[in-house]
Amino acid sequence: MTALIIIGVVLLALVLMYNSLVGKKNQIENISGSVDAVLKKRYDLIPNLVSSVQQYMAHEKGLLNNITELRAKAMKPDLSDHDKITLDKEITSALGSILVAVENYPDLKANQNVMHLQRTLHEVEAQISAARRAYNQAVTDYNNAIEMIPTNFMASMMNYQRKEVFTIPETERQNVNVNDLFSKK
After folding, report:
1. How does residue 108 score in pLDDT terms, banded at 50, 70 and 90?
2. Residues 31-78: pLDDT tens digits?
3. For residue 103, what is the DSSP state?
4. Reduced to 3 states, what is the DSSP secondary structure of residue 174?
5. Burial grade of 42 (CB within 10 A; 0-12, 13-18, 19 or more)
6. Distance between CA 153 and CA 146 in Å, rounded?
């Protein structure tokens, strides 16, 4: 009788660990889908922004072409999480450059379409930021589960691997020197 109780407790623990790991993996996939939805929204906005500012920024053509190329890469199906994270970093950097460049064109800044696109881009960037935080938390919970005892044994049997979190480039970790920004004009 005692042996049956012990076997039952062990089986229950194994089922709970298995379900916990599957739940964490599925949570990452769900949040990854949410990140993809917001990134898709951003990618849909990029052509509008590029066409709106293109005529004003003839000498910024390289920047606009780079954003268009990055968008095309990001729209390819079956990108790995690593590729998505890498492209997200590149597009974030390029969009930051284009928004700074827009500041140099007073007529463009005053254009209502560009102002609307800028506001929308800022909203989407805020949504992307929130989705990245949710994704990183889910990945951290998952990575903890697959590395901590006792779930690490079951995760190993299930061939679960560590997931990568969103990080920012080293250049964006540095403090912004406001004096430099004002002295550029």
Report:
1. low
2. 888 888 888 888 887 777 777 766 666 667 777 788 888 888 888 888
3. T
4. coil
5. buried
6. 8
Q: Report d(CA 8, CA 115) in Å as an integer.
A: 64
Q: What is the pLDDT of residue 176?
A: 59
Instruction: Name the token pair of 44.
Output: 């849909």
Q: What is the enclosing helix (H) or strand (E) of 162? A: none
80: tokens are: 């790995």
- The residue type found at 105 is Y
Cβ atoms of 21 and 146 within 8 Å: the answer is yes
Is the preceding omega at residue 150 within 30 degrees of 0, hence cis? yes
d(CA 116, CA 130): 21
Q: Is 37 helix (H, G, I), strand (E, B) or coil?
A: helix
Q: What is the pLDDT of residues 160-169, one digit of tens each?
A: 999 988 776 6
HSE toward the beta carbon, residue 34, CA cutoff 13 A: 16
Please report which residue ranges of the chain form alpha helices under DSSP H.
Answer: 2-54, 61-74, 81-102, 106-110, 112-147, 151-157, 178-183
